[in-house]
Structure formats: C-alpha cells, structure tokens
C-alpha cells in the first residue's frame, strides 16, 4: 500500500515516502511484549459467533466507519473455520483462527496483526483490530453484522458517474501534495478501482455511489482505507473560487490517524512520472555493495556471492508489513520458480519494524513460507526509507517499498524501479509485469 502522509503524523516515516505501504504506526522494537497483552489462544472447535456467511465488518477510527466485507466458511465437517476478506475482486484467505472461551483471534495473513472478536448477539460480532508490531499495541474498534453485502448505504437518487480515469492530487494536512491517477469502474451504484501514485497503488478499493457522493474502502489486514468524494464543491460554496466542471473533492482516511484531502478531474490520458527515473545510482557508482544476514541463522547474502556470479540478479527491497510488497512477491515467487533455470536470481532485502534481527527473520520466514517464496531473503534493516537508503549507499535514495533493482551478469546496476502497480490496478499491473519480463529477458540475452 501507499501512505505518504505528512511527517507530522505517526505514519510519516514509513508512509508518505513509501507509497502504498505504510505502517500506520512508527517503527518498533518488536512484538513479543505486545502479544503478551493480547494472547492468541489454542483452537478448541468452531468459534462462538463466527458463523458461515457474508459479513459486513466496520472499523471505527477518526470519527469514520471504514467498512469491509468478509466471508466465513468451514472445513473438516464444519469444525475448522476460514475467513476470506473481500476487497473488490480480491480474496484474502485467513486460516489461522484460534479460540479460548468467548474470544476468537483471526490472524491477518502474513501481517503481524489480528482481529480479536467475540459474539455480540445473534448475527453480530464485536472486537478489535490489533497490530502487534507498534511501539504500543495498535487497536481499532471492530463490529460486524452477518448478512449485509453492501459496503455503503445508497438512496433512490440517480447515481452520478465516476467511471473512468482521473487526474488526482492528494494533499496532506501539512500542505504537501503529490500526484496520482484514479481508475474507477462503475455499474449502477457499485464502484471498484484504485489510485496509482509514483510509489505504488492503494490496491483493491470497492464501494458505492449515492447521488453525487462516492465512497470506497478496503481492509487487507495491514491497512484500513476510506476514500470519500463529492462531485462538485459541497455547500456552502466559496464564491471567491472558480470550480472546473466535473471536479471531485474528497477525503482520504487511513487507520487511526492518517488523513489527506484530494481533488480529481477526468483525464483519459492521466499518467505518472516514469517509475524508472525517480531514483538511481549516485555519480561514479555502478554496483551494489552489501552483505546482510540471511533470515536463516548463520548465513549471509551478498551479490558478490558465488551463487550469483554470471547471473542476472533482481534485488527486491521489501517489508513483510507492506501489502504492495506482498503484491510484488506474489508475482515474483511463481515467476522465479518458472525462470530460475534460465540464469536469473532474486534477492529479497527485508526491512522490518524491529531492530532485532532474530525477530525480523521470524517475520520474513513466515512471509516466505506463506507466499511460497523460493529465492533468498535477508534482513537488511528497519522499515523506513531513510534506513533503506543508508543501507544501500550506492543509490541516490530509496523512495518506496517495494523498490526493484536489476543487476546484469557482471553485477552492474542497470535499472532501479520505484514502487509496484499491483493486480488491483488492472491494465497497469499487466504493463508492470510485462516490463519486468522484458527487462530480465534483455539482460539475459547480453
């Protein structure tokens, strides 16, 4: 994901410069003490209140409701529950579900986070979204109702069309702004889409149009986003300003504290700066020179290792907390298995929210196992653009998680690509992955 909020916000160090991927919290010293405050009980049958069907969950933050849909199913003759988050076309299956007494903990995929819930009457749940990897446990109140399948209520008013491509400007509460491209598909009152920025995308968004108001949301376990927009200025209108026709005026809420405003105008040719030009090598530099500890105890990883000699190497700058990074990893992992015999390797450089290498390694091993990653992964540092830039001093700077660096067979850096347009961006994802393959193909032919 991408969060680029002002440095005045807690998320700033990881967000604003990190595109879609943000911590919604500052860097941390690990999660074990936080887990002691919110223990994860052993499984003991079907959890109370977690009944099969479609549910509408609501996270309450900043005076806003951030809704999302999820589906509860059961396996093993109804004894093992699974929960699937539904964000537009995305389906995120959650199968680590444990229960003790009236409390159920739903681990949120690869992320160090969970929904801790209990029954609250027939067809109701309540609880907390908890992120364990903050300096303090990050908690957001959660409720859910079974059988509701619309994210947002709509009236009988004829819906305004938000369909198409939009030229967008986001503006932080500190006044800093950045460009984006909005892409929306609308059928009646229902809308899906996303925003692309120079450092990534806001992934799968879904929602409804009510009259001339648009509402979109998503929850992937690591981030909870709400986008609202009004076609035209809201009353009372400032008569001292001129407003272009068909202009959107909106707000963006992220988790407990992130907030930005945004405006947009329709533009079928809207585009962002070239992601291959946003950063690169410092003058006089040609190679990366690093040696980081492997996520497996006792090992280390460097592009100078014999394993990588004479091969094309792709270096992936990532974090297990970063949904955009997981989108890229979901592409790279199967791609690597199909192509590694061609003489190409991938090195994942993990930047985690803890300075403890052992704990960071554990998080990255969990990611590697769940996403079936076959390439090497190292612990490179803590999760901030500044730390990543410091650890890779040959680069002008790391602007986003993920960042992808291409090395030729001689070990020279040939391209640095900032961000990743994930599958929620549709055609932009197809273009992203096609460009990746063209780049590697060209380097292999040299």
Automatic annotation (TrEMBL):
SUPFAM superfamilies per UniProt: Thioredoxin-like
Protein's UniProt keywords contain Signal: yes
UniProt domain Thioredoxin: residue ranges: 281-445
Region feature Disordered, mapped onto this chain: 21-49
Cited Gene3D superfamilies: Glutaredoxin
Keyword tags: Signal
Keyword Signal among record annotations: yes
Signal peptide region: 1-22
A Pfam match: Redoxin
Chain intervals with Low complexity compositional bias: 21-33
Protein name as it appears in the record: TlpA disulfide reductase family protein
Source species of the chain: Hymenobacter aranciens
């Amino acid at each position: 994901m991408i969060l680029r909020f002002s440095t005045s916000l807690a998320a700033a160090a990881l967000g604003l410069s990190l595109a879609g991927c943000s911590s919604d919290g500052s860097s941390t010293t690990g999660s074990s003490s936080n887990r002691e405050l919110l223990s994860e009980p052993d499984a003991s049958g079907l959890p109370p209140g977690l009944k099969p069907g479609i549910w509408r969950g609501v996270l309450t933050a900043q005076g806003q409701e951030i809704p999302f849909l999820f589906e509860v199913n059961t396996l093993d003759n109804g004894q093992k529950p699974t929960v699937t988050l539904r964000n537009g076309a995305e389906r995120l299956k959650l199968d680590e579900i444990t229960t003790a007494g009236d409390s159920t903990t739903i681990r949120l995929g690869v992320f160090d986070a969970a929904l801790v819930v209990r029954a609250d009457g027939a067809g109701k749940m309540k609880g907390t979204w908890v992120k364990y990897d903050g300096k303090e446990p990050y908690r957001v109140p959660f409720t859910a109702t079974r059988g509701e399948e619309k994210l947002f209520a709509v009236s009988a008013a004829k819906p305004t069309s938000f369909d198409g491509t939009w030229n967008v400007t986001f503006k932080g509460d500190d006044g800093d702004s950045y460009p984006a491209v909005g892409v929306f598909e609308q059928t009646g009152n229902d809308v899906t889409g996303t925003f692309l920025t120079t450092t990534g995308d806001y992934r799968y968004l879904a929602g409804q149009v009510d009259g001339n108001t648009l509402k979109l949301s998503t929850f992937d376990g690591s981030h909870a986003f709400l986008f609202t927009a009004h076609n035209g200025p809201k009353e009372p209108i400032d008569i001292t300003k001129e407003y272009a026709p068909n202009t959107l005026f909106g707000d963006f809420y992220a988790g407990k504290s992130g907030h930005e405003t945004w405006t947009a105008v329709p533009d079928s040719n809207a585009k962002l700066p070239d992601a291959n030009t946003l950063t690169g090598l410092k003058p006089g530099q040609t190679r990366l020179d690093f040696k980081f500890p492997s996520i497996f105890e006792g090992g280390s990883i460097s592009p100078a290792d014999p394993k990588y000699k004479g091969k094309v190497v792709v270096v992936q700058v990532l974090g297990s907390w970063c949904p955009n990074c997981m989108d890229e990893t979901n592409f790279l992992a199967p791609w690597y298995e199909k192509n590694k015999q061609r003489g190409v390797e991938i090195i994942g450089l993990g930047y985690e929210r803890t300075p403890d290498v052992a704990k960071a390694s554990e998080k990255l091993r969990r990611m590697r196992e769940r996403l079936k990653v076959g390439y090497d992964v190292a612990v490179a540092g803590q999760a901030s653009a500044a730390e990543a830039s410091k650890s890779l001093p040959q680069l002008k700077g790391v602007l986003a998680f993920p960042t992808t660096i291409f090395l030729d067979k001689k070990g020279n850096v040939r391209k640095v690509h900032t961000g990743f347009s994930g599958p929620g961006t549709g055609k932009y994802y197809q273009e992203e992955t096609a460009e990746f393959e063209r780049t590697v193909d060209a380097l292999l032919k040299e």
